[in-house]
Amino acid sequence: MTSGGIEDEEKWLAEGIAGLQHNAFYMHRALDSNNLKDALKYSAQMLSELRTSRLSPHKYYDLYMRAFDELRKLEMFFKEEARRGCSIIDLYELVQHAGNILPRLYLLCTVGSVYIKSKEAPAKDVLKDLVEMCRGIQHPLRGLFLRSYLSQVSRDKLPDIGSEYEGDADTVMDAVEFVLQNFTEMNKLWVRMQQQGPAREKEKREKERSELRDLVGKNLHVLSQIEGVDLDMYKDTVLPRVLEQVVNCKDELAQYYLMDCIIQVFPDEYHLQTLETLLGACPQLQPTVDIKTVLSQLMERLSNYAASSAEVLPEFLQVEAFTKLSNAIGKVIEAQVDMPVVGAVTLYVSLLTFTLRVHPDRLDYVDQVLGACVKKLSGKARIEDAKATKQIVALLSAPLEKYNDIVTALNLSNYPLVMDHLDNATNKVMAVVIIQSIMKNNTYISTDDKVEALFQLIKGLIKDLDGSLVEELDEEDFKEEQNSVARLIHMLHNDDPEEMLKIICTVRKHILTGGPKRLPFTVPPLIFSALKLIRQLQGQDGDVVGEDVPATPKKIFQLLNQTIEALSSVPSPELALRLYLQCAEAANDCDLEPVAYEFFTQAFILYEEEIADSKAQVTAIHLIIGTLQRMNVFGVENRDTLTHKATGYSAKLLKKPDQCKAVYACSHLFWVDDQDGVKDGERVLLCLKRALRIANAAQQMANVTRGSSGPVTLFVEILNKYLYFFEKGNPQITSAAIQGLIELITNEMQSDTTTDPFADAFFASSLRYIQFQKQKGGGMGEKYESIKV
Which superkingdom does the taxonomy of this entry point to (predicted)? Predict the structure, then answer.
């Protein structure tokens, strides 16, 4: 509406209010002087202001409410007149002499209200008369407000059960008939508003009609409040008549609003018992009606009703609520061919929510809903619409939230088929949700077929889908995703070794398709899961022939070797080396010398060929030395070969200090406390002497490059190794050698111009330890006695 039009309307409203107030003033004066004739005259003139056609519904309502307030006062006057002996029947006749039909009917309704209250005539007769009389106004806006007034003044005077106006046996039916008739006429007037006026103002009229919807809906509310409307009457009379009006009006706004009204105002129990009738009307509605919202609200109400008490659940089974709702949704989707995907999926989400709340034990129902959704989505491309995607995620999340158990969801054959319709990004999000559900509920997946089904669900995290590249994803997000997959692998467990091996093989099959970027995250948990199984099987062995052979450590080690080799495609040599060493240690515990030797060989090959970075080499050689020191499965020949390799590589490290530390670490390879036979004092001494030579060379290099001999930390570290082997009883490590080393360090420190607080403290601490051992006495004290500090 233009600003000029708004101003005109404001002016017309102001004029109407002024006219109304002017006549109301004289009406009040007449009421005060008990002048009935003038009171009726001025009230009719006052009500004539409601005959206007120039106001919008909003402005007309403003005017109507002022008139309504005045009519209340007039009604009070009529009651007083009746009390004073004035014949209410005569008054009823008298007001019908008003000149214009609209004021006449307003006055008639007002007197009719008093007439019913006086009980001089049966309520049903007066109401029937009034509702018929109101047909005289066919202007939609004026007629709606008049009938709204009739509804308002009569609602507490209906001949209902227990009401003071109750008559003979059929009066409840009369009350229902009155409200239904008024509702029908009001709905017709409301719908007719759409046809009035030029087509260009259609949108404006729709908005105005929407503002008036509650006038029509109040009738349904009145119906729901009538005590005499029991289930049978609702089923046989009320619902069929209301639905007939809804379907026949063929108006989108009216149909949507009235269906919503029916669902909201009548009891849930009635809906459940009349489900077929109510749902039967849905496909008959206009294709443009938002039926998905209506059905969703119905299912939500029924779900809440089911949740309210366990006693009502048999009713749902008795009426076959799920089947009826499922069929109705199918028919609606079929009838509305243009319904967007989001609409259909929303309906299925509501149906699934209903099913999970009412029939949580019926997995076949849940799968049926998912299957119907798959059918609707089939033939369509991956869903790009954000709203539809959100609804599919809600559909997939509902069973997880309800059952708190992914194993239950894995029994749903249509679950992965629904997931396939998600775009790649959302597919990943859903996969993460599934993993989080497993973690949160501490769910262990214990069969290989369930693992297979699970990995089908989370394949968006396991491999690239349809050529989508990993690079598209933020690095941090990618790491988080893959870490969640790694955590998941630890939740796949079965105490039966055979079944566990199948699970490991299934996981391996999937993760090896993940590409080089994923393998560093997913291979380690798989390896450790397999090592856990090996520890369980420790001591078993057998030749591997065919596929049906029981799970044996040897068979699993072969699988592990092939799996770690896959990391070469990354490449990730440091990780592969660590895993080879872990496997070697497990083979040692299983007493499988050839297997352990093979893993060490692979580790050394990686060290030689793949690890070039000097820092990585230092870490790797210390890992190799540490693992080799703990091995007790090797014979003399194999152990010599491996220790020789380790000491050789230690001496070839780039930096002298690194060389020195690695070489003195190798000394532990020749002296193992808890193992007989490996106590070669001479080779321990050779390692330590070699370490001293390298430390000395490092000192000299520091002297050349920096002009000072550098810190003596390396010498102090070697001194500590001497002390360790001295205490362990290595005959080659003498007190004289230790004494000489102490003096060497002391001289170095005195000649060094720069001081290193750490080296000084370290050396002082070592000397304190020697002093402590001397003071302690006993056998150890005697050994230390000859050392002077």
Answer: Eukaryota
Let me know how long the chain is: 789
Please list, in sequence order, all residues whose beta carbon lies within 8 angstroms of the beta carbon of residue 426, skipping any fewer than 6 positions away. 389, 392, 393
Map out the domains of the chain as residue ranges.
1-121, 122-266, 281-404, 423-540+550-571
Residue 677 pLDDT? 62
With a CB cutoff of 8 Å and minimum separation 6, the contacts of 476 are: none
How many Å apart are CA 389 and CA 371, to the nearest integer? 17
Read off the pLDDT band of 259 (50, 70, 90): very high
Q: Which two tokens stand for residue 304?
A: 């809440």
Cβ(642)–Cβ(628) below 8 Å: yes
Backbone angles phi and psi of 234, in degrees to 5:
-60, -45
What's this model's pTM, rounded to 2 decimal places? 0.75
Chain centroid, CA 285 distance in Å: 34
Is 739 a residue whose pLDDT tops 50? yes
Encoding tokens for residue 548? 């049906």
Q: Is 260 exposed, middle or buried (0-12, 13-18, 19+ CB in 10 A)?
A: middle
- pLDDT (tens digit, 9 = 90+) per residue, 311-327? 888 889 899 999 999 99
Q: How many CB atoms lie within 10 A of CB 189?
A: 23
How many other CB atoms are there within 10 angstroms of residue 424's CB atom? 16
CB 81 within 8 A of CB 59: no
Show the tokens assigned to 242.
Answer: 């209301």
Q: What are phi and psi of 587, to 5 degrees?
A: -65, -35
